[in-house]
Amino acid sequence: MQSATQALLYRTYFETWQRGEKYAGQNKVKINFYDDKKVEADVLGTKKYQTILEFKGNGLSRNCTCPVRDFCKHMVALSIIWDELRGLSKPTKGEIEAETIPPPLVSSSEIEDAYADPVNADLEIIRMAASEFGFDSKKKFSHARLPLKPKFNENFKEPLAITEVKKAFSEIRSWSKKSNYDLYFCAGEMVAGFCELMRIIKERLNCSDPLICAGILQLAQKFHYELILELIDDSDGLHEFTEAHLQDIYMILKNAPLKKEERKILNEKLKEFDENRDNY
């Protein structure tokens, strides 16, 4: 005889399971029909919801009239009662903690806020956004964990040098060679590392030669394309963050007060940057 609770357990959020257990204990499940393969019930929540569970083939078919509709607390409550009626034991506390889905690391609103203002976004949100999916239901696979940023001089009174920026990009590139590196699940950390570097570079612009900074911007743009096109899976549109940080530095250089000859050279470099936009 198949267990409904075991069929739902690993697909349900921990908090949802807890609420379903509470409903089952409060006698909110009214069974209308059941046998070994199917159960129909009314589950009392904010309203009365019709909930159906049915084993078909190797899976458990589910339906509930609540707004959530799938893997909801009403299904959990019904699965617990149904298993009890058929003489099947419910999952232990340890099984529930180990097998249910952990709470999301970040909320959808936090992710939306980050995309709305990528230059000032909390980069930790970007790092964590995909991490909750970076393992299977049995916790057998975990993606590589990457540094927060490459090694880079954070003395804001130290002029920038192209060599140190190249070295930082080389370090980020090396992260993709780590064991269990995943193009999708590690993408947020790769992009956050790039953006952290851009933020340090921005702080050091004031004490640096603008023409050298323009060369660094071109170098950063080139590496940005490598990062987005080769080193990560950009399915979530993380290029919005790298592009925003490049644009931020571009605008600072564009508005920098310079002598006429320096401005002419800088404008040529910025023109090349403009011409190389959207190269993917």
Which short descriptors sum up this protein?
alpha+beta, 4-stranded antiparallel sheet, 10% strand
Detailed description of the structure:
With 280 residues, this protein is an alpha+beta fold. The chain has 2 domains: 4-99, no CATH class; 108-275, no CATH class. Helix content is 49%, strand content 10%. The protein contains 11 helices and 4 strands, in the order ααββββααααααααα. It has helices at residues 4-9, 14-25, 73-85, 93-99, 108-116, 123-128, 162-175, 187-203, 210-231, 239-254, 260-275; strands at residues 29-34, 38-44, 48-56, 59-64. The protein has a 4-stranded antiparallel β-sheet. α2 (14-25) crosses α3 (73-85), α7 (162-175) runs parallel beside α9 and α8 runs antiparallel to α9 (210-231). The protein is elongated. It starts with a helix and ends in a 5-residue tail after the last helix. Mean pLDDT is 91; it is low at 133-141.
pLDDT averaged over residues: 91
From the N-terminal CA to the C-terminal CA, the straight-line distance is: 54 Å
**Secondary structure category:** alpha+beta
Strand content: 5-15%
Please tell me the total number of domains. 2
Number of helices: 11
- Please describe the biggest sheet, giving its number of strands, its sense, and whether it closes into a barrel: 4 strands, antiparallel
Quaternary structure of the protein: single chain
Draw up the topology in text.
Elements: H1 4-9, H2 14-25, E1 29-34, E2 38-44, E3 48-56, E4 59-64, H3 73-85, H4 93-99, H5 108-116, H6 123-128, H7 162-175, H8 187-203, H9 210-231, H10 239-254, H11 260-275
Antiparallel strand pairs: 1-2, 2-3, 3-4
Helix pairs in contact: 2-3, 7-8, 7-9, 8-9, 8-10, 9-10, 9-11
